[in-house]
Each structure stands twice: as C-alpha cells, then as structure tokens.
Amino acid sequence: MKNVLPNKILAWYDNHQRDLPWRRYRGFQDRIYKVLVSEFMLQQTQVKTVIPFFNKFLKAFPNLKKLSKANLNKVYKLWQGLGYYSRAKNLLNTAKIVQSQHKGILPADFETLKSFPGIGDYTASAIMAIAFNKDFIGVDGNVERFVARLFGYKNNKKNFKNSILLKLKEIKSEDNFSKFAQALMEMGALICTPQNPRCNICPLKQNCISFKKKDFDYKIINKKKVNIKKYYLLYALEKNKILFFNNKNKLLQDFANLPLISYKKNLFDMNFKKNSFHFEGEPKIIKKNFVHNISNIKMLIKIVFFKRIKKINDNQFYWIDYNKIDNSLLSSFSKKFIELVKTKKIKYV
Ligand code: SF4
User: What is the rounded CA–CA span in Å between residue 304 and residue 262?
Assistant: First the structure.
C-alpha cells in the first residue's frame, strides 16, 4: 500500500514526461552540468521560456570548464531576454568556484552546494535529487500545489510548507529519487495545473482529497505588495549619440543605463553633483506614462527630452552611438525605451 502513490506517479512520468533538453545528456558530468544550468534558468521562469535560452547557452558553454572561463558580458548577452540577471552572474561565479576549488566537479553535498552563489535550499535540493539521485525533493510551486491538493491541505497555516515536506517524506519513492522529484514537478506542471486541473486524466484522482471535495483552492491569496516608484528618464541626444549613466546600483551596475532620477527631485534644478550637468533650452516631457515593472516594483517614468546638453563634468555620464546601441548590454528599462525609439513610438529627434 505504501508504494501505491509513488508507483502511480512514477508510472505516469515514464509515459508522459516531456523531452526537455536538460534531460538529454551524455554521461554523468554532462547530466550534472545540464541540471545545474537549467535549475538556475528555471528560477522564476517557465520551462517553455527557458528552452531556447538553455540551448543557446549550452552551444556557447557546453561544459562547466568552458563556462568557468567565460567573460561575464558574454554570459549576460546569452541571458538577455530571460531577466533576473543576478542568476547569470551567480551561475558564472558558481562555475568558477567549482572549477578552481573542486577540480571542476560539482560536489554531491547539500551544504556545499548551498555555499555557492545563487544556490538556496530549493536549488540545492533539486540538484541533489535530480542530478545526484539523492534523497531530496525540491518543493517548487508546482510540487506544492500538487501535494496540497492531493492531501487537501490549505495554505492558511504557518506549518503549511512543513506539512507538505512531511507528507512527501511519507510518500516518496524508496530509491528512485531523481525520477520521483522530476515526476512530482511534471505532475504539477502538466496535470495539476494552477487553473482547471486535469483531473479527468490524473492517475491519482481516486486518491485525491481535492477531487473528492471538488475544492481545488489550496492557497490563501497573499499578494505581494507592489511598490510604486516614480522617476524621470533623461533622453538627451548629441549628434547621433544618446546619453547614458553609470548607475552604481548593484543590480544595474553591469549594464548601460539611461539616466534616471527620482521624481521627487526638482527637475529644473537638476545638477547631479553640483553643476555637473547643464542643458540648454527647456527640458520637455515627451511621454508621461512609461511603465516598467521589476519584481514587485512598478516604475512610473516620465520621459524628459533634452535638445542640447551644454556641459557634462560628471564622468558617470557617457554617450553611446545610436547605430551601435545593439552592441551594448542595456538594462531592461533602457532596452524597453530604446525599442520605443527604434519602432518610432518615441521620436528620435
Ligand atoms: S485529481 Fe485533480 S486536483 Fe487531484 S492531484 Fe490530480 S489533477 Fe490535482
């Protein structure tokens, strides 16, 4: 009886698992490397979005050694469009540490994995289970939903996550940890979907409490608070060049950023560091409602156009030739703005 649930889950997985590129490997080290890269890419991103990025990435860096010698800008370029760039930097740094301190072999040890940049409890558990076939399970949103519905748990108690983990320990496969961990994720992604779970084809419907009760809401919605921040974005041109700014913010410092200033400051007294930035003529607001979302921050941006910049003393400012802008690694809001210019939704004056 104890094996009924895991056997049903594993049998379903044998017949229905997706053919994903990180599930195709040649040899043990290749498998570990592919699991590592895919787990970084899948953090907060859906499988179908990740696949083309994963394929391109593996083409450029087919193994951990190659990745460990990579240049951060190249890694960022390949990550462009996937978002959350800190993952790219952390993956590269993890590869460097593994190459230099662990002879290029990713250690099969939970605590050591967690000591690497960008690897927390979930990613370490997923790698331990999927790559090394160890007795771990990474509980992502898909697994949580599937198990909660199966056992009729509601996310309204402090110990909800713990209850899921305890239940998983009870029902887990005895030896096939890798396959079981992936099967749970796949069940959550393909069958026990957030909306309209596909109970009619679910192998567990006879065992499922939510199905019996016809009550599939397991989550008490606890929406993340959205922070609204207001900015001016300075759009300044000189001949064929656009003004950029070296932003010292940790998340932006590796990118080319259009100058942003907080809306609270007085636009017409805008001297970044004492008289460093002078302009001729009146700055003109050419767009009032440029919106950009980053995580739980909603940026409300007014675009301010400057016809002529008279003097820039601050070496944090620099120009980029408009025709060469595609060679630069733009921050997400800058990229979005430049797309508006390219598609003539904002005039390149
Ligand atoms: S029967 Fe329905 S609710 Fe229950 S686990 Fe299967 S898909 Fe999810």
Answer: 12
